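Its record is quoted verbatim for completeness.
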Amino acid sequence: MIRAFVLAVALTALPALARPPRLTLLISVDALSSDVLLRNRHRLKGGLGQLLAQGAYFPYARYGYAECRTAPGHTTLSTGANPWRHGIVDNRWVDRATMTRVLAFADDAHPVLEVPRTPGQDAGPAHIQAETLADRLRVATQERGKAVALSIKSHAAIPLAGRAGQAWWFDKGVGKFVTGTWYTKEFPEWVKALNARKLPEASFGKKWELMRPAAEYVGEDDGPAEADVYGLGRTFPHPLDGGLPSPGPAFYKAFALSPDSHDVLVEAAKAAIVGEGLGKDDVPDLLAVSFSSTDLVFHEFGPYSWEMQDTLLRLDRALGQLIAAAERAAGGRGNLVIALSADHGGAAAPEQWAAMGQPAKRVHSAELAEGLTQALRQQFGGDVTAALEQLDVYLGGKTHQNGAVDAAVRRAAAAWLAKHPSVVTAVASDDLPTAPDIAGFLQPLRKSYFPGRSGDVVFMVRPFHLLHYTTTGTSHGTPYAYDSQVPMVFAGKGIRPGTYLEEVDPVDFAPTLSALMELGMPASAEGKPRFEVLTGK
């Protein structure tokens, strides 16, 4: 009798013990490399600093595919799969028939609401070929669990929302949060109210000032190859007006780049929490927030700039507010899981590297494409044209059937590229599956390759060589550590805190969250839960 009573009590307690978190807060910080975070960690005392101190922190998560960019990175974080499965190979790719570029989330059948209609704009998830964490949650809970994704960028919000969640992003043309008709046919009241507050306009005419005394910033304010965009200038303080007399697109671009956008994104997250009732019951919900200013600052000023240091300090403060709001919504940290990672890292400006003695060089993509085009026309005649999109080369021309070239042209293009002084390897798509991988460069290229979207030729630049279209700023998009290595952090319910120095792959991010949320894995996931940080409680 006593044994039966004890067993009954134990069985009654099991559901409470195994109950998933009411709310999972997924945070992505665009272009937050491990290097940037490690160099600035001692200065972080707010939400980001507390996550690192109190959570399970992997400093060395490294993407296993080649083209580390925003759209594929966010899609990998949400699916647990590499581009060879989820199909999002880059922020855009080339249609060989027209030799025009296609955005990763273009969907003319589901246009963006309340903005001027522009063919080919990011609008929905139709191109994603794998199930996301948000999709899995919606299916597993029979649509009772809610999934909301927010970002300044469309190509961050959409892959985090997947097909079944909600995606909201800041449109820099009209200065408000929008979505595509894939997700809804009409803005809900909480979004209408959020946009009616006109929060970005509060920054108009102000200046982005340093958060801390200038003596606390490392290096010089005006570094090599920094850019001057949207009227911001190259040094602090940065005016936030876009050179306009009143708010307009140039101002909204300046605002999106500035860390003021961190605070507006947090306000949008708070509005979503209240408007959608996130975390209010025992059915798990997902709130995904991707901070974009870090990437926009990185591209124009570089990872060592005062601007990057300052935007990280301000992000630290903003994350404290976001996490506090999520805790309140979930009824405390015991009902909340927090996970943070990044879609990619980023290179320093090659001029800065070169000044420190590295064999760095800026490689102009258009010049490389033009040289290849001329070489192929001399060899094969006709109008064969080469277009570069990061590490992909697309070949086409009107005189070729359906705009496509044959294998001989592809292999000739690979041979030409392989001899270029800034290229370490190049291979035609025909040979990618079987070519010997002598230095280990082909496996990342294979994981980035998706038929019909990737190039006719794929190649790898040498370390510290930057493929870029301009003479200022910097970028990312290679498997070298500066581009591919990012932090991964978990905190809250069911997490064993600590610093875990093993190198892991961000394909483990979504599977770990699936385990914490007590869901099955996203269907195409290649990663696995990081069991060493899970308590099972």
User: Anything to note?
Assistant: Confidence is low (pLDDT under 50) at residues 1-17. The chain is about 35% helix and 20% strand.
